[in-house]
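Q: Structure tokens for this one, please.
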Amino acid sequence: MILFRINEKTLELVEGDITLQSTDAITNAANSGLRGGGGVDGAIHRAGGPAIMEACRKIGGCPPGEAVITTGGNLAAKFVIHTVGPIWHGGTKGEPEILRNAYKNSLNVAEKNGLKSIAFPSISTGVYGYPISQASEIAISTVIRYLAGPSSLELIRFVLLGNDNYDAYVKTLNKIRN
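A: Here is the predicted structure, written as tokens:
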């Protein structure tokens, strides 16, 4: 686990399972139809139970880069913030800006709902194919900029599945803060 303090707030990197986090919200790397799926999305829906899907159906969808909030169902986290990251097309179709917006808009939704803590997976680096080194730089720099401003969020945690993902985020954080 790595902790980095910014304006009396904490950025944390951990290796683990996002569905087990007890932060106020966890973030789901969702598809635009909010239909559940594989990877993080499927794991969150399975662990959280049918209440999450029911809430997603009522919302209907979410465009890439945007974010919406639902109940956490059976999860330890009270809420799930669903965001849609970009599918990697070589970086020529606005992928960096869409990914940046996915993080920023998730943070804004957390803030608007009075949350104090949020956990993120590595958005778009699984089946969507975003290179982890580039995605981690966007993710961490976006969160650091957010925490440098006024915010009621006290903890932002990246929960990374597997040592390779965790090591990539640690390397990026060390590069950014040095």
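A few notes: The longest helix spans residues 95-112. The CA atoms of residues 25 and 168 lie 23 Å apart.
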